[in-house]
Amino acid sequence: MDIPYTVKNRPDTGLYNGKLGVWLFLASEVMLFGGLFSAYIFLRTGVDDWPAGTEYLDVPLATLNTLFLISSSVTMVMSWASLKLNDFKKYKLYTLITLLFAFGFLVIKYFEYSAKFAHNPPYLPSTNNFLGIYFTMTGLHVLHIIGGILVIGYFYGPGSKMWNSDPERFTNRIEIVGLYWHFVDLVWIFLFPVLYLL
Amino acid sequence: MSTDQYKQSFWTKYIWSTDHKIIGIQYGITSLVWLLFGFGLMMIMRYQLAYPDTPVPIVGALLGEGGLLPPEMYNSLGAMHGTIMIFLGVVPLAFGAFGNYFVPLQIGAIDMAFPKLNAASYWTYFAGSVIMATGFFVPGGAANSGWTSYPPLSEIATMGQTVWLIGMVMLITSSLLGSVNILVTVIQLRTDGLTWMRLPIFVWTQFITAFLLLLAFPPLEAAGVLQLMDRVVGTSFFMPSGLVVTGEVMTNAGGGSPLLWQHLFWFLAHPEVYVLILPAFGIVAEIIANNTRKPLAGYKALVYAMVFLAFMSFIVWAHHMYITGMGTSIGAFFQTTTMIISIPSVVILTALLLSLWGGSIRFNTPMLFALGFIPMFGIGGLTGLPLGLAAADIHLHDTYYVIGHFHYVVAPGTIFALFAGIYYWFPKITGKRTNELLGKLHFFFSLIFMNGVFMPMFIQGLAGVSRRLADGGQTYAHAADVIYLNEVMSYSAWLLGLAQIFFIINMVISLFGKKTGEKNPWDATTLEWTDTTSPPLGHGNFEIVPKVYRGPYEYSVPGEKQDFTPQSKKV
Amino acid sequence: MSELTPEEVKHHIKTYVLVFIALAFLTIVTVGISYLDLGHVGGIILALIVASIKGTLVACYFMHLLDEKVTIYWTLIATVVAFLILIFVPLSAMLDHARI
């Protein structure tokens, strides 16, 4: 016996298990980042002199990173749409571009971080709470990016064999991965102004 | 069954299993071991409280010089007792074990929605619990800042606190995976005909609990990450400026707020109270309906009350923080919500109590524990009301009164319900019966000694004795008149420990007993009893996946031949 | 989303491109605004409004929230409520502390 609704939608909810599962997971992610945003507001309003993000951070680099993530998001959803159109080659292409943008994000983040550490005096998480929360929030976000790269990479490489055996299930998986990836993008859309611009 | 043809080794079948029943048992055994361990810590502490500065017998050699329990270690034991009982014991047993085993069976599903994720959840819990325990072996001992880990104390504490935080992050991850799984299972895998209002109350409680865990735990994970950053990287999220520790000004940047931790911690920890109690309600409701042989009173009221309870539990947390200098307007808000949340609790308890009315009650072991639960939880709940009002709480805060209050809720409350569940479902899990005499001895002695431990705490607390005093209040003027109770409580605690031997013996001899071959020994109506063998089939649970035609508690329906009508019986 | 026809998917793809352009444009806008002197509070509010619009676009179109099922909506409503409590109540409690 197989577990029902792993691929097909349950008639009364109109969902397959994985999709509901990933939305619930994202709900908890909202609360995880919510806790950090709450901490940020709490810390910021609790002191008189909160530094402006521009004092420490590099806005042009972060703007470029924002564009990278938005682009990777759109290529992600395109790769899913390609599967819907039965175009596996295009799927591969779009997924590859998504991965490249994601790596690009990490590279820029690396330059940002190392510039902070190399600054004289160094800008460390312990320097003040602004840098502390900056490193914590972006660090956690980077971990999410790395997790996403691993999963997308898997479905670009070995995981994509499933397209031949069970295309519908494979398309569902890409939809789920996409949901996660868009969420990571969504978090950044809020992190960017909150940390860099305000 | 085709799936039985798979040849499985011991390891794949019992250790790396993805079968929800095996995982449920894994959760159950692990959490029971932790419960016993956590209780053991408390028995050591109770020796110190009754006889301060005397060597602890039996385990003294493990503790410190001359068998004495040093105060720092007393703090460690206290913090770890709380953490272990709640996060490693009660929640995994109530949610991980019972939820895993019985939710799929009661909704007619062949497994959880994500079996591999389920196994991952268990092993993350297991790893987290081992990490938590390694705290005892690091320099300075295990975490010693209380189970609440309030900064700044926890920030300057020894290394054990870091271990505690890592363990917590793993436990939170585990419960997150588990709750997603339960939610998807209940929403997606209910069998044909099992509408929401036909769900057994137990499934409802697990469903709501899963939602609480899903939404309330991540903020603590965020807080845990922030505290880890404070401790490991040297940030100051919870460290105020100019903090002086033993005469020296701390060198960190400062500007943080210890209150931030309290908010994030209690944002979880109040819903956590309902995570502890809701599954207990569910188990007790099942057993009461079954043993009164009549439908539960107010099924819908129960469901709505629990949903409302869950929602309200998100907006009461600051009633743990009245003494932080909270202003009157916010204080008024939280006092109001706290009084409101007692309403659904009373609705639930009243429904359970009214269900007894006019029933022909069978006083078997599970029913005794379920009946014991009601007044014990009642005491726990009612003694909480003064704590919900700031004027009384400011006096009672951090006294033994609080300890008595929440232990009544969790120990003779939730843990009694969990025992009831174990006795009730033991025949389903093993196909064997437990010994009624041993079960009854276990119940009556536990009931007496539980009250012996916790009732005097109210007296001490009202007299003003603080919690977390390593000497039990010897040097404390308030305690002079009530300190003799320490001995009473300690003896009760040890005797309570002895009473658990009845339980252990009962489990062991019943396990080695003969299979009875009865499918449905309690004449119950829900699917796990009526449509599966005992124990259920290895993979797939059911010979034929059942369909549901009626509500969960159709007992003593007029005109029926039997006094129970299975949910799967055609109309 | 498993019952889409190829025509519908192609229509979707057009939408994705439009959303992408909007997101990129709004990113430039929000950076641009940050260089204007709108006062402290004004700047924060405007930046958050832009971020919310961008977030909504991603959720509605990339994550297909516009034509999602009612179960997902209920889940997200519960999450949003919990999120708002998490964000605003500690804040109000702290501001209240300051006044005592």
Q: Which strands sit side by side, in order, in the main sheet of chain B? A: 1-2
Task: Please state the structural category of chain B.
Answer: mainly alpha
Spatial shape of chain C: flat
Chain-averaged pLDDT of chain C: 88
Terminus-to-terminus distance of chain B: 29 Å
β content of chain B, as a range?
under 5%
User: Portion of residues in helices of chain B?
Assistant: 55-70%
- Give the uncertain stretches of chain B in residue-range form: 1-5
Average pLDDT reading of chain B? 93
Q: Number of DSSP helices of chain C?
A: 3
* CATH second-level architecture of chain B: Up-down Bundle
Q: Fill in the CATH topology of chain B.
A: Cytochrome C Oxidase, Chain A
Description:
The complex is a heterotrimer of chains A (198), B (571) and C (100). With 198 residues, chain A is mainly alpha-helical. Chain A has seven helices and no strands. Chain A is elongated, with a radius of gyration of 19 Å. Chain A starts with 16 loop residues before the first helix and ends with a helix. Chain B has 571 residues and is mainly alpha-helical. Chain B has one domain (27-240, 254-530): Cytochrome C Oxidase, Chain A (Up-down Bundle). Chain B has helices at residues 10-15, 20-50, 60-63, 71-106, 115-134, 160-188, 201-233, 258-292, 299-312, 328-356, 365-388, 390-396, 400-430, 436-463, 485-511, 527-530, and strands at residues 244-245, 248-249. In chain C, helix 1 (6-35) runs antiparallel to helix 2. By secondary structure, chain C is an all-alpha fold. Chains A and B meet through helix 1 and helix 5 of A and helix 6, helix 7 and helix 8 of B.
Give a quick rundown of the structure.
The complex is a heterotrimer of chains A (198), B (571) and C (100). Chain B is mostly helical. Chain B has helices spanning 10-15, 20-50, 60-63, 71-106, 115-134, 160-188, 201-233, 258-292, 299-312, 328-356, 365-388, 390-396, 400-430, 436-463, 485-511, 527-530; strands spanning 244-245, 248-249.
